[in-house]
Amino acid sequence: MPVTISISDAFDGGNGKLLKQQANPNDSSMIDVFLHIKPDVYTELEEIVHMQYFSFRASLNGLPEQGKQKVNYVVSNAHRASYPQAWPGTTVFYSNDVEDPDSWKRVQDTFYTQGNLSWEFEHDTTNGQQSIYFSYFPPYSYARHLQLVAKCAKFVGSSSNNNNSNCSVQSLGQSLEGREMEYVTVGTGKSVCWIIHRQHPGETMAEHFAEGLLTRLLGMESESGKVDEQVERLLGLYTFYIVPCMCPDGGVKGHLRTNSVGANLNREWATKGDYEAPTLERSPEVYHVLNKMEETGCDMFVDVHGDEELPFNFISGAEMIPKWGKRLESLHGAFTAAYSRANSDMQQTIGYPPMESAQDALKYMNVATNQVSNRFDCLAVTLEMPFKDCLSNPDPEFGWSPKRSRQLGSSILAPLEYIHPYLRTEGDDAEFWNQLPAQDAYIPPTDDYQQKQHSQGEFQMLQKRYFSDVLEIHKKNPMQ
Question: Which of 14, 95, 290, 437 has CB atoms 3.0–4.6 Å from 104's, for a disulfide?
């Protein structure tokens, strides 16, 4: 009986379509499997069909007991992805347990050649690898999301921490497909901190980050809900509003960047030209969050994402918006520096190049960080994690992973505590930046992370873009 391969994406967050399978022309012992990534729904504002995230299960049939089979997987429409220049250096994840986020490892020999993303894998019945899941990044299922929300609700009700008297788990409203937009409130402090995650559903590391943050804030690692001393201090300084998943519909569908009707939520925070946003008809996820934010105010805002191209964690700011000045610049510098000190996976120098002019910034006022910073005159940042391995602390076997995402979420409390005294300074303390050490100075980020090669004339500069803007790459040419 010949060995055949079945490809399935019929699970929460799955994305992958089998095109064909055939014998490898150069190796008779290998089977070639050709696949396509399924696109998101067409995005009206950006005039593009996003795609890049994939997650599928490969099952081998006809493999004898204690048998092995080499398979060459080829994603043949990789060149049509939203960020094709991000594929070089990418290593695909694999696991035989889709529900265990820490079981995923990387296929280190992943290649992008002639527009195809490919990797070889040897399936082996003796080690449970007859059926294997492959993903761009390990999924965060809606079932896991509901478990996280339920666990938060349990600890909110049972926590022994006095600062948790203001704790609650509530819904802001519903997504277009009827899923609740849950948020967690915790803390009694006067300063309001909003942290939202996973506006782009394929950036699953963002919700792993949320899990790490909420686990520490609510003391969910202990049965009693007891928190550490730093958390106790933070809960007295801040009232946190945390949205663990902004785009549940897109997550279930395996989308990269859009909700169920093609809205890129991080372009829905303000009306742009004739394109009205946010609306209940197209982007209720943003509509409900922004309405609640108007009610509570905002002194600090963090929008958690993943970046396909840069192999680093980094902080992107609201440079050059109308409210940008020495105060916001200094807060941004101090926050990023303190985060880098708290967790060596964060760094200050690599990231999206800042806007060069106020005119450039005005084009992106529909982006969450810019809109919130300007509307509330507060520090607002976009936190990006890599799909690739993190070159700050390389780990070829696991790369940047769900576990490290959770750890980065847990460690954000240190920079939040550090900058708290300066968020709303007045009087003699208004020019607080004069008190900060030199190491906290704002550093304009660059995407030239290969400076050594650059100095040797080997570096090719990445195509400049702001906020992962695909229009800078595709120039409004819709993907077919």
Answer: 95
Sequential pLDDT tens for the chain (480 residues): 588 999 999 999 999 999 999 999 999 999 999 999 999 999 999 999 999 999 999 999 988 877 899 999 999 999 999 999 999 999 999 999 999 999 999 999 999 999 999 999 999 988 777 899 999 999 999 999 999 999 999 988 665 555 556 789 999 999 999 999 999 999 999 999 999 999 999 999 999 999 999 999 999 998 778 899 999 999 999 999 999 999 999 999 999 999 999 999 999 999 999 999 999 999 999 999 999 999 999 999 999 999 999 999 999 999 999 999 999 999 999 999 999 999 999 999 999 999 989 999 999 999 999 999 999 999 999 999 999 999 999 999 999 999 999 999 999 999 999 999 999 998 878 899 999 999 999 999 998 877 544 444 443 444 555 666 765 555 544 443
Q: Are 288 and 189 in contact (CB under 8 A)?
A: no
281 is catalytic: no
